[in-house]
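Field: COMPLEX_INPUT
Field: COMPONENT_COUNT = four
Field: RESIDUE_TOTAL = 1168
Field: MODE = joint
Values follow.
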Amino acid sequence: MLRYLTAGESHGPQLTAILDGLPAGLPIDITQINFQLLRRQKGYGRGGRMKIEQDRVTIRSGLRHGVTLGSPITLVIENRDWANWSLIMDPVKPIPAALGVRERRLAYETHTPRPGHADLAGGIKLNQHDLRNVLERASARETAARVATGSLARQLLEHFGVEFASHVIRIGEAAIKKDVPLNNLERLRSITEESPVRCAESKTGREMMAAIREAKKKRDSVGGVVEVIVRGIPVGLGGFSQWDNRLDGRLAGALMAIPSVKGVEIGLGFAAAAVRGSKCQDRIFYDAKGDP
Amino acid sequence: MLRYLTAGESHGPQLTAILDGLPAGLPIDITQINFQLLRRQKGYGRGGRMKIEQDRVTIRSGLRHGVTLGSPITLVIENRDWANWSLIMDPVKPIPAALGVRERRLAYETHTPRPGHADLAGGIKLNQHDLRNVLERASARETAARVATGSLARQLLEHFGVEFASHVIRIGEAAIKKDVPLNNLERLRSITEESPVRCAESKTGREMMAAIREAKKKRDSVGGVVEVIVRGIPVGLGGFSQWDNRLDGRLAGALMAIPSVKGVEIGLGFAAAAVRGSKCQDRIFYDAKGDP
Amino acid sequence: MLRYLTAGESHGPQLTAILDGLPAGLPIDITQINFQLLRRQKGYGRGGRMKIEQDRVTIRSGLRHGVTLGSPITLVIENRDWANWSLIMDPVKPIPAALGVRERRLAYETHTPRPGHADLAGGIKLNQHDLRNVLERASARETAARVATGSLARQLLEHFGVEFASHVIRIGEAAIKKDVPLNNLERLRSITEESPVRCAESKTGREMMAAIREAKKKRDSVGGVVEVIVRGIPVGLGGFSQWDNRLDGRLAGALMAIPSVKGVEIGLGFAAAAVRGSKCQDRIFYDAKGDP
Amino acid sequence: MLRYLTAGESHGPQLTAILDGLPAGLPIDITQINFQLLRRQKGYGRGGRMKIEQDRVTIRSGLRHGVTLGSPITLVIENRDWANWSLIMDPVKPIPAALGVRERRLAYETHTPRPGHADLAGGIKLNQHDLRNVLERASARETAARVATGSLARQLLEHFGVEFASHVIRIGEAAIKKDVPLNNLERLRSITEESPVRCAESKTGREMMAAIREAKKKRDSVGGVVEVIVRGIPVGLGGFSQWDNRLDGRLAGALMAIPSVKGVEIGLGFAAAAVRGSKCQDRIFYDAKGDP
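Field: COMPLEX_OUTPUT
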């Protein structure tokens, strides 16, 4: 059973993850982890901070000469901007006296909770007046550690022939015009890697970029929808003995635990509401002689 | 920390749930549990089986004279149709020899997996040729035990002023025309209890019923969308220290663990994709002086 | 992964356990469960209550015709003395008004915490003035549910050739004179089943009985030590990736969770303190050419 | 709820621990963690390796200026001997070709399982022919990460007035002559810190040292018994609703998860077997009017 913990503040010295439960004997490709970290950082119209970071993973346990030992794996992603933050974010050293009251207040403390973030709720929950003490961990920066950990899980699944692809199907008003073919995920991956917005349709991709530019011009932001495709899953993952081993629930729980994700669908999703049962895609197993 | 296990086959003698972690001293209203079980069984156009069941809960531990002891609570929902199933579903007694080969095959065994169900995957996973051994537990009947357990959790939350309401916003092509007001959940509850399809708009409700009747006439089914509203949640539920204590993830995980649920949204949900960040409802905490 | 919850008060209507995770296709012998429940109730010098109970298990889910389905198993042990307790322990009905103040106080409430029990700590923890609300669940009666659940786990292990035996090696000052041979557990089991104190040496067994009688005469009690022997364990149970999958820790944790158990040893146990490393029994794998 | 994972091989670059669940606002004393790490390394008669290590903790997350943030804490203990091991233990780089067959075999691979260790079982479980792949994680070196994590938990408990002390009561045949007084733990701590074998009686301490020297002379080892004393525990830790929240079970489970620990007692422990119930120390709450 895989389990993991992550740690690290957004502007702290490093993110760390410990992944327990990966079996022994699996060769791990570090460049794959770094490739996924790079994909996380890309993004049309992303701000300056992402350029600074250039995340790279270091592995500090659990492998020997690139092969898993069956022991827990430690992943470290150093904060490349740490030098600029060490004074006010040092885990141990006290805040320097030399920091003037004004600088201290400006650089150090944050008292205005941002909408749509954990600042206000976290400040109340943890009894913190300086909201930096909240936002540093609540930050989506933490997902870099999940991406690195996820890349390990993906390498395990790929070892068993499971294949992954994802593409952006909507940004703002710009949405793809037709479903992508699911039978050639390698091609889908190579097309979306070329697109700055990971869109499989080049014209729609340009509309998406325009939507982002326009929002950015007004100092605003815009949302999107991503489709994730997984093929080759072995039969029987998850279970139905209890609510907490249902595969759909586990997938949705993991996805909605990503701060920016506000909705998850599986299969037809919400569209199923307007579709007759007899038309549902899942009906591919339907046997005409079967009891409906 | 609340945790629970449920047990019971769809046509077995009973469903059972054990809920651990409810604090001592909470008065429990059994009629509320039965009311929620009744709500689960209602439904415009539902088949005959639901009429048979008439679920009622019996409490076998964890309360004394209607008040929680802090010890685990046992909930039992007996199968009112057990007499008809006892021969072929008895947990212990062998299948009677008197059952002829043909009857046995007809009544007892199921070899055709139904689309959209766990039959095929479960049969492979558990190495079962008689798929009744799979579908009996994979059945959505199990959610009756979750409803009863959930009613206990709800009574705990209501004790602290948390308020719940839900209503159906879409069935097939029929969808509500405008958002319901969120400031009077009691009124919303009373309106939807009157509606056979739990719709807050009477005209839309009639369209929903027509959609169901039409699908049923063609021996087909149709989907829907439900909105759940919770008010008065204390600040700070969930957390952001790890992926698995994020509140959104936990809610989505629990909802998607209900067999029929194929999509979950929180807040704006997928609509957020087409909405500028500055227009998002969550921005109610926005402080004009704050860093956006 | 096996997990289970138990429920039920000592004088409530029933004990219930739900065991999740037993694989499908395992034949279960109910008489084995009842045999283990009977063994739990026996005991030289035990009081009257044990005679009343005569625990018997009923299975309400998870099996079909005596074979596991892979779905959770519900075990019920009814309280055979429930009729005498229903008035003051009913989970739902209010305490009858007819119960006079004096009777009520005598039969119903308990205000004096017993030494060596959870009464005092539980009363403070759960804010209960009537300590019956604490002791009913803290009671060792709950271990009957664990015995029934454990019998299912044992049947799974026995299916794979794991063999169990246990015997009493000390009661008060009476202790066995020499180690029992470990190579014939069937013989050990049959000898100890014959002994009222489960002692493998008949003379020592009589000394143990005398120790119990003597203590009882003085309205006192006396302790003992049990040795549990398990053979045929597959290599590799437990693990060393984290503290919480170490087999020794899991065994000790389960044993010390039995209210009366105050110490646990594995292998040489405390005796290892006085034995040179080179003499330790575990050294059987020692290879003379190996690095010590 | 506190939870933690540790990671790191015995001769790998570092040990890492992530502790999740410590509340925000707790000042942490790093010197206390290092003091506990030093205590772990001390030990009369310990071999050379311990001298090399000189463990020191670095904190990489979860604190800001020495105070907890409520976010997970990352503890790192670097392997000070890493330079000597990096060639054959590098997590990522391949084993250098320049390593001759003989050196490689000698320095790198281990094929002889040691008695009393996880080598044999681990090699079978993880399908490893080079037992170094097993012993590196199974090694008791991992307990350094537990000690560092435990020091954080101890600082939380000390904040609430809980006090800890421990002393060695037996090594080989040398055992303390009388119980230590429990009312002055500070004095007990200062006496045992002075003793090379942490014995509270100076004469017995010298006997213990002699026992160690004598065993060592014969290239052998000798065991011991430690008593741990905790005072000021708040009432109500643990619980009795399920087997897995019983405090005794949790303590014993954690202690027996330490590789060298073969027995755990709480209170009178095994001695309770020979003591009448009326004489048990726990009887201090006994109320003469109470129902025994």
